[in-house]
Amino acid sequence: MRLDSALTILDKPKHKQVAFERARSLQELNGTHLDLVSFCWQSMVESSDFFDTHQRRTLRQEILLERKQWQRDLVLDGGLAFNDVSIHTIWTDDIAAWVRKQLEKKHCDIVIKSVHKTKTISHTPLDWELLNTSPVPVLLTSTQKRKTARRVVAAIDLRHTDRTHQRLNRKVLAAADRFARCYDAELHCVSAIEISNVLRDLDIIDERSTKKRMLEKSQDTLNDLLKPYDVKKKQRHFPVGKVGQAVTQTARELKADLLVVGSCAHRVKQLVGVGNSAERILARATCDVLAVHP
Prior knowledge:
9 helices, 2 domains, 11 strands, Rossmann fold, eleven-stranded mixed β-sheet, alpha/beta
């Protein structure tokens, strides 16, 4: 995975600029060129019930100029050089559509955005839309304060051995390894093992022996996937349980800085290695989450 350029969606000025800080660290460590985008929109300004055409145009220009100056101050305060960044100040209420069109015009290796969750602990529609439609990996940066241990966790799927799933597993591992090397972090992998609770509770199957049998069956696939990387046995995790809960719990226990998952066919709800538990993973994760597409 290349990290030569990053499209970074800035938060509103009143918020802490978490995405900007992640992007700034990438530039310091990797020389990544940053496209910093700030979005403005005021529905009242667009309403003819309040202002005439000239007034609306004037107000838009004043708001955009003020925001652009704030962006320039942010760059200067962050110690960045203007030749290493590009500033975009955009008037729109459809951020995902603008991002999609921008990526069609100008390639970026990654989109960076801070996570925003609703009171129900689910992601906002914008987060989901970006994850669903972005043609490049999306890094959602966590705003939660937490202790980290310089660890990057790659969530892989060992249940499916077809070419498509294995190709995406390799992309997930390559992306995780790229970030681990960039941040001098330890690379871990996690693959959840789902065992029927009904059969287990009825003592029809034994969890320990079933897990052992499933791991033996996937051992060759796992060794082939991990061959290019330095992932020792103690850095390989196979929790038993629902995928969403098991993966995020493992990342939490490891105090991971980043969890890397694969999204199949650009549909977040079919994350490879995550299955239909994508929403739970992204809602539960306390660390940064990188979604990688096929």
